[in-house]
C-alpha cells in the first residue's frame, strides 16, 4: 500500500509539472493520494498495535506504563481510526474547496456541451438534400448565378464592392458601371466556380474537402484584406441561399397558382428582411439543404480568416513563434 501511494504521488507530481492534465485531473489524483494515505496510515497503526500486543504476550511479566496500556487498548484503537478517518474526510473537503473553480468549470462545460448537442440542428446533409441541392444548382449555374449573388450583395451592402476591389468610375453606386468592370466579372466567376466545386464534391468526396476549401478561402481573404464583419458573413450566406433557390420557390408557387386560378404573387425582392430567423421560408428540401451547406461553408471561411489573423498577431508579438 505504501508503494502504491508513493507511485501515485510521483505520477501526480510529474503530470502536474508537465501540464499534461488539467486542474480537474490533478484534483482527482490528489483525492487518490489522500485516500491511499489514509488507508496506509490505518494499516500501519493496525500492524503496529498487533506487533506490540504479540511482544507483550511473549513478555508476560513485563511491566508496561499506563499510557502504553491505554494506547494498546481497543478503545484507543477505535479512537485512532476515527481520527484518521476524520482527517481524510477533512482533507477531501479542503481539496474540493480549493479546486472548486476547476470542478465547477468542468461541470458547467459538460452541461453546456450536452445542451448544445441536444439543441443544435445537424448540419450533415441527407442523401435527399444532396440530390435537391445538386438539382437546384444545375439550373442556377446556367443563369449566371455568380453575377446575381455578387450584384445582390453589393445592392444590400455597397461595402462589398470595396471588399472585392470592384471600382466604380463615379462616386455614386452605379450597378451598370460595376457590372461592366473586369473585377466584377472576375469575382462573380470566383464565387460561382467555388460553389460549383463544392456542390460537385457532394456525394463523391468527403465533406471535409469542402471544409478545407472554405477554410483556405478564409485564409486568402485575410491576406487580401477582405475583412468581413460578423453581419456580412450572414448576409453572404442568406443572399447565396436566396438567389440559388429563388427559382425553385417561385416556380412551385406559380404552379400552385395556375392550378388554383389565382394571380401569381410578386417575387420577394427583400429576402433579407427576416434576417433574425435563419430558417424562415425554408419549406422545401432544396432550400434546407442549401442553408446547411452555406452554414458550414461560412463557418469554415470565418475560422480560416480568424486563425490566420491570430497566427499573424502571435508572429508580430514574438518573431520566434512558429505556427
From TrEMBL:
Keywords: Membrane, Signal, Transmembrane, Transmembrane helix
TM stretches of this protein: 26-45, 79-100
InterPro entries referenced in this protein's UniProt entry, alphabetically: Globin-like_sf, Globin/Proto, Mb-like_M
Top-level lineage group: Eukaryota
Signal peptide range: 1-16
GO molecular-function term, one example from the UniProt record: oxygen binding
Protein known as: Globin family profile domain-containing protein
Species name: Pristionchus entomophagus
Amino acid at each position: 500500500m505504501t508503494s502504491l501511494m508513493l507511485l501515485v504521488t510521483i505520477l501526480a507530481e510529474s503530470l502536474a509539472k508537465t501540464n499534461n492534465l488539467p486542474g480537474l485531473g490533478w484534483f482527482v489524483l490528489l483525492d487518490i493520494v489522500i485516500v491511499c494515505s489514509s488507508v496506509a496510515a490505518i494499516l500501519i497503526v493496525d500492524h503496529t498495535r498487533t506487533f506490540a500486543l504479540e511482544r507483550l504476550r511473549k513478555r508476560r511479566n513485563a511491566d508496561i506504563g499506563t499510557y502504553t496500556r491505554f494506547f494498546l487498548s481497543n478503545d484507543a484503537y477505535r479512537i485512532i481510526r476515527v481520527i484518521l478517518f476524520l482527517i481524510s474526510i477533512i482533507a477531501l473537503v479542503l481539496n474540493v474547496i480549493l479546486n472548486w473553480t476547476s470542478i465547477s468549470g468542468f461541470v458547467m462545460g459538460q452541461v453546456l456541451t450536452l445542451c448544445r448537442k441536444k439543441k443544435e440542428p445537424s448540419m450533415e446533409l441527407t442523401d435527399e438534400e444532396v440530390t435537391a441541392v445538386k438539382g437546384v444548382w444545375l439550373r442556377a449555374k446556367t443563369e449566371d448565378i455568380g453575377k446575381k449573388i455578387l450584384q445582390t450583395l453589393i445592392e444590400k451592402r455597397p461595402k462589398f464592392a470595396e471588399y472585392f476591389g470592384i471600382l466604380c468610375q463615379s462616386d455614386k453606386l452605379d450597378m451598370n458601371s460595376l457590372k461592366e468592370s473586369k473585377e466584377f466579372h472576375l469575382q462573380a466567376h470566383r464565387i460561382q466556380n467555388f460553389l460549383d466545386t463544392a456542390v460537385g464534391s457532394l456525394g463523391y468526396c468527403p465533406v471535409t474537402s469542402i471544409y478545407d476549401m472554405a477554410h483556405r478561402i478564409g485564409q486568402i481573404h485575410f491576406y487580401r484584406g477582405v475583412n468581413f464583419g460578423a453581419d456580412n458573413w450572414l448576409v453572404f450566406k442568406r443572399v447565396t441561399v436566396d438567389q440559388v433557390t429563388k427559382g425553385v420557390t417561385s416556380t412551385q408557387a406559380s404552379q400552385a397558382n395556375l392550378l388554383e386560378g389565382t394571380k401569381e404573387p410578386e417575387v420577394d425582392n427583400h429576402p433579407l428582411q427576416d434576417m433574425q430567423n435563419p430558417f424562415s421560408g425554408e419549406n422545401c428540401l432544396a432550400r434546407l439543404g442549401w442553408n446547411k451547406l452555406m452554414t458550414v461553408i461560412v463557418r469554415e471561411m470565418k475560422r480560416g480568416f480568424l486563425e490566420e489573423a491570430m497566427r499573424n498577431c502571435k508572429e508580430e508579438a514574438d518573431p520566434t513563434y512558429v505556427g
